[in-house]
Amino acid sequence: MLLTRFHMAILTLLLFAGPAAAQHEYVLSDSSALAIHGTSTVNSFECHAAQVIGAGILNGGDKSRAHIEVRVPDLDCGKRRMNRDLQEALRGDEFPLITFNLQYAERVDSLDTIQIVGTLSLAGASRDISVVLDAERRTDGSVRGWGRKHLRMTDFDVDPPTALFGVVKAHDEIEIVFDLVARPDASTAQRTDGRAPEPR
User: Fold this and answer.
1) Domain 11-184, what architecture?
2) In this predicted model, what pLDDT tens digit does every residue of 109-130 receive, in sequence order?
3) Are the CB atoms for 152 and 120 separated by under 8 Å?
4) Of the four, 7, 170, 189, 191, which is 20 to 30 A from 54 by CA?
5) pTM value?
6) Coil, helix or strand at residue 20
7) Phi and psi torsions of 123, nearest 5°
C-alpha cells in the first residue's frame, strides 16, 4: 500500500539510464515524492510521505536490485486524527517501515515505459506486486520515474481506518502515487555480491 526511511518501489527506472550508468549505485534524491490517495464514506483523502529513501544497483532484468523505504509515522494526511487512525491501521508502532524490494524490471515498449516487479511489505505482510511507470533520463545524469498503483488494504491484512465510532470508514481501495528522482552515487562502487545497498 503505501507502497522512505511505499512500495516503495521503484528505482528500476534507473535501469534505462544507459549501459555505463547501469554499473553505478543510484540513490533517491530529496525531491522524490510518494502519496496515498483514498476515499471514505464522506470524503477523499491524501497522505504524503515526509521522505522517500532508496538505493539500488541496476544491471537489467533480474540482475537489478533496489530497496525503498517510507516511514509510517511520517505519513501526513493533513489531519491529526486521520494520521493517528492510519498509523493504527498500519500497525506503525510494530511495523514502522513500508518497504519495496525490486526483483525484476523490463522496458514495456519503445517508449520509456517500464514494468517492475518486487515485494511490497507493510503492516507485517509482504506481497509481490507489478507496477508500470514512465521514466526519463535527464541531462544532469539523474533519472525520473513516475506512476500510480491501485491496491487494496485488505490484501495486506489491513482493516481500512474508521472514525466516529464507525460512522466514517475508509474504502478498501487506495492508490499509491509516486514521482521519484534518482541520481548516480559517485561515492560508492558497485557491489560484487549483486545485493542492493541499504539506504543511508
Assistant:
1) Beta Barrel (2.40)
2) 756 888 889 999 999 999 999 9
3) no
4) 170
5) 0.78
6) coil
7) 55, 30
